[in-house]
Amino acid sequence: MPSLTADRRARIDAELEAHPFLAELGALFEAAGHELAIVGGPVRDAVLGRPGNDWDFATSARPDDIERIAAGWADAIWDVGRDFGTIGLRKRDHQLEITTYRTDAYDEGSRKPDVQFGDSLDGDLSRRDFAVNAMAIRLPSREFVDLFGGLDDIDAQLLRTPVTPEQSFSDDPLRMMRAARFVAQLGFGAAPEVVAAMTAMAGRLEIVSAERIRDELDKLITSDHPVAGLRLLVETGLAEQMLPELPALILERDEHHRHKDVYEHSLTVLEQAIALEDRLDAAPDLVIRLAALLHDIGKPKTRRFADGGTVTFHHHDVVGAKLARKRMKALRYSNDTIDQVTLLIELHLRFHGYGSGEWTDSAVRRYVRDAGDQLERLHILTRADCTTRNQRKAQRLQRTYDELERRIAVLAEAEELGSIRPDLDGGQIMSILGIPPGPEVGEAYRFLLDLRMDRGPLGEADATEALKAFWAARPQPG
């Protein structure tokens, strides 16, 4: 069995000493006649020197015993999934999950694992996803357990499974996506036999619920190296099962190479958007990353070869937004997230109508209004979407967008662009025109909003005069 180096032992001891509640909890379980061990990601991260705040434990105790032992010690206790053997605890600022030793397996056509409680830590570790996550620290003794070469795999920066990949992925097919996620999070590579099994078994992902797939995809997308994980999903065929629009971007290049490789372009845009995330309040930002990845998914359906061999993708922004909405609904994303991502995709080409700065103030106002609260993300996406190798062209586009942002800032300071409203509200419209609530009020409101966009703030008197003139010239019913 591989042994800990002195520096890794010191790292683990420092982590345990920094969190004395771990020893306290271990002593409680030991006094009750049960085993307790830290398992999975927290152990791996302690070995790697990565900070962590959430703790996962495995125990010989059953859920009722876990609750009884932790009662009076934990600040809060909740049932995460009793049928799956998991009880959640909170101790000060720390979230803890304690799970009874398990040996899970999926039936051939089931979306839910057949949970069976085990009786040993060794058996529990053998059923974990990867060897780097199959290490444990027994409490309170601090004994380090590594039965499957997790330390060696950390040294090799490699993902292997404790048992055969085929058995591991049959037990839970979502582990194939987890392999891609850990490639993205840790910067590790997947062992050849793991990649082979992922490729052969990709179809098994169909039995996993959309919610679990979405959660795993989100963790991958918001990791440090998402492109590496996405490439693995595409290369193994897993992306075809859950995000087929991504591999569809690998279009056949025309013989004269008159258009970019859309797949590679999209991955580059994702990387460039991540590099600009410091413009946002918080990073990583799931919305901008999804929008960057999916912004061109309308291109395969809109590709046309014009006279002379040129390639066009007319309206791929609108088509892409519709495709993204459909896919994200299938993956059970929230309506807010779907609306934000699809709006960015729909607007990502708008800037290119700006030319070298010819937009009127009215057009700038409409750009801001249409982007709404996604304006800063739209700035990021538009800038990230420039992947040309022509430095002069790239610099020109950057200068032009700098100028657009400057104009937005000037107009925003003068006119509060972020909350553009007509100069008259609905109540004033009804009073001036002498009409009751109904569709006609909305018609008048839209006229005033368009007028506000075109001419800027008018003031109440000028807006009233314009409204009366509009209403008088309006075709009368009948």
From TrEMBL:
**Entry's NCBIfam families?**
HDIG, tRNA_CCA_actino
Q: Tell me the InterPro entries matching this sequence.
A: Bact_CCA-adding_enz_type3_sf, HD/PDEase_dom, HD_domain, HDIG_dom, NT_sf, PolA_pol_head_dom, PolyA_RNA-bd, tRNA_adenylyltransferase
Keyword tags = Coiled coil, Magnesium, Metal-binding, Nucleotide-binding, Nucleotidyltransferase, Transferase, tRNA processing
Its BP terms in the Gene Ontology are: tRNA processing
Q: Which Gene3D superfamilies match?
A: Beta Polymerase, domain 2, cca-adding enzyme, domain 2
Name the species this protein comes from: Aeromicrobium endophyticum
* Molecular function GO labels: CCA tRNA nucleotidyltransferase activity; metal ion binding; nucleotide binding; tRNA binding
Q: Does the keyword field hold Nucleotidyltransferase?
A: yes
Name the UniProt record assigns to this protein:
CCA tRNA nucleotidyltransferase
